[in-house]
Write a structure and sequence with these properties.
mainly alpha
């Protein structure tokens, strides 16, 4: 197994849309979520290790 699953693809698509200024309500509708809290679970913008200052430290 390569670690790729439907939820990872959906999270990537949702995060990409939100990074490119899509409204979260639009993404919610697009993903078919009844509750916006579910859509927020798919938003990975805040969990990007490459944006962390510790990711940029050279050892």
């Amino acid at each position: 197994m390569n670690g790729l699953c439907l939820h990872a693809l959906r999270a990537t698509a949702a995060t990409n849309a939100l990074e490119h200024a899509a409204d979260i309500a639009y993404v919610q509708e697009w993903l078919g979520h009844a509750n916006i809290a579910t859509t927020r679970l798919y938003d990975r913008r805040k969990s990007r290790p490459e944006d962390s200052p510790t990711f940029r430290v050279s050892y």
